[in-house]
Task: structure prediction
Amino acid sequence: MISQNCLHDALSYGKCFTGLGRPADYIPELARVNKHQLGVCIVSLDGEILKEGAYDRPFTIQSISKLVSLILALHDRGGEYLFQDKVGVEPTGDPFNSIIKLETRTRPFNPFINAGAITVASCIEGKDTEERFGRFLTYIRHLCNNDEIYLNENVYLSEKSTGDRNRALAYYLKASGILEGDVEECLDFYFRMCSVDVTALDIANLSAVLANHGTNPFTGENLIEPSCAKALRALMLTCGMYDGSGRFAMKVGFPAKSGVGGGIAAVVVDRMGIGVYGPALDEKGNSIGGIKILEYLAKKLDCSLF
Ligand code: DON
Result:
């Protein structure tokens, strides 16, 4: 049992740190938020839902979408092909949008750095971007138990018009024979997936499915192959917080995936999914208040894997 008081204290603790970070501004639309917002939601596998603060405030999912796109690509292409020919499964120790290793290694190190996620996006099947994005939306709505998940048009257009770094990564990947299909179409799909609005409650639901080995804890519906859920949790632990993954494993100690919109999806296997939202980011692009909430909960609930 987790008490509401415990969650309240975790949020209060996290709030002490929001002043130390700042919202992402390389996507101009993301800079237009109150950086002190903070929310948390826990969905436990026995059906209990606890919420505090800005848990229902929408924010764009950003890199947390890389969990969903990876599941779709694994479904379409299989792990053998994807992890052999397209992306690796190793942490980089570099920032999420780094280009430095592409020339020496060709294949992106893992599916969560931008180069890896753009490659993964190019492996998702569909006759055009509409159909591919339609598949993504349908699936994420199931995973988050929410039929009201939509594209945030302003953030999408903001990133599409300024995303030249991702454009550089994608063209490089195409030239190396890694990225499949049309580069601009692939980028358009990737930007759309990153620009879907969600809440901390939504990502707590998604995390609960991963904590429950791929099965929706409320409906009993199997949404992710157990072996795929396991691969995702492993990648989240080693690569989910980018070049902050090692420190996060030490301080918190369970799988998590961040996004520059300020969200973090965190998984306590066999116990609960946690969603946090706080748009003030640290220098690695991870929510600063969100990490502090998770640190607090890991300690109080004694749920570090280590
Ligand atoms: O491609 C980008 O840069 C963003 N749409 C997503 C990056 C991101 O969320 C990294 N996470 N911390």
Residues 62-63, 96-97, 114, 159, 166, 194, 258-260, 285-286 surround 6-diazenyl-5-OXO-L-norleucine (CB under 6 Å). The chain has two domains: 4-60+198-300, 63-194. The CA atoms of residues 208 and 273 lie 4 Å apart.
